[in-house]
Every structure is written in structure tokens, then in C-alpha cells.
Amino acid sequence: MCLICGWVYEEELGLPDDGIPAGTKWEDVPMNWTCPECGARKEDFEMLAI
Q1: Which of 14, 32, 35, 36 has the fewest CB atoms inside 10 Å of its own CB, making it the most exposed?
Q2: What average pLDDT does the structure give for the chain?
Q3: Number of domains in the chain
Q4: What is the mean pLDDT of residues 18-47?
Q5: pLDDT value at position 48?
Q6: Residues 33-40: contacts with CB within 8 Å, 24+ apart?
Q7: Are 20 and 11 in contact (CB under 8 A)?
Q8: Keywords of this protein's UniProt record, alphabetized (predicted)?
Q9: What predicted TM-score, i.e. pTM, was given to this entire model?
Q10: Exposure pattern of 23-47 as b/e (b: 16+ CB <10 Å)?
Q11: Which residues contact 2 (CB under 8 A, 6 or more apart)?
Q12: pLDDT (tens digit per residue) in 5-26
């Protein structure tokens, strides 16, 4: 979950529009990726257990 805006990355959905296929684990998301809602960096995210 993004600590800036609260947007949640869901591994099972991925982000196909950003080139991240469904099923991509969070640790495999590129370090230079940014939040699609607010532009925060990957380091501004925290694991959220649902």
C-alpha cells in the first residue's frame, strides 16, 4: 500500500498498462516504478496483509 495516497498494488492483477503482468510479485516490480495515483516511489510502499 502506498503510504502517501493509500493506493494498493494487487499482485494477482498486476498493472498491464504499466508493463507489469498479472501475477507479478511485489519484489519483482522494478525499483524505478512509481505509484500510478500519486507518483510515489516503490520505497514509499508498505506491505499490507489482506
Answers
A1: 32
A2: 94
A3: 1
A4: 95
A5: 81
A6: 35/2, 35/4, 35/5, 35/7, 36/7, 37/2, 37/5, 37/7, 38/2, 38/4, 38/5, 38/7, 40/2, 40/3, 40/4, 40/5
A7: no
A8: Electron transport, Iron, Metal-binding, Transport
A9: 0.85
A10: ebeeeebeeeeebeeeebebeebee
A11: 8, 35, 37, 38, 40, 44, 45
A12: 999 999 999 999 999 999 999 9
Binding-site annotation: residue ranges: 2, 5, 35, 38
Known binding-site positions for Fe cation: 2, 5, 35, 38
Please give the grid coordinates belonging to residue 36: 500510478
What are 19's three cell numbers? 508493463
Query: ∠45-47-50 over CA atoms, to 5°?
Result: 130
Contact 7, 41 (CB under 8 A): no
